[in-house]
Design goal:
70 residues, mainly alpha, two-stranded antiparallel ribbon, 2 helices
Amino acid sequence: MRVSVIVSLFLALLYSVDGRQQAARPVVGLEIGQQAPAFTFRDQFGREGSSETLRGPKGTVLLFFRSADW
């Protein structure tokens, strides 16, 4: 009986702490359908570009990944 009460209290505490942390997290990124802000960048050859130079007829998809050998 004591073990079940202790486990129940632990789970209730864990749930309440996890719930508070999720509520305090800031929203990161864009909402679906929201337009991204304009930006500029330098490519791997040092040439300057912008979000406008990347735009295609159906929009733009950017994919960032980190190589294992960086």
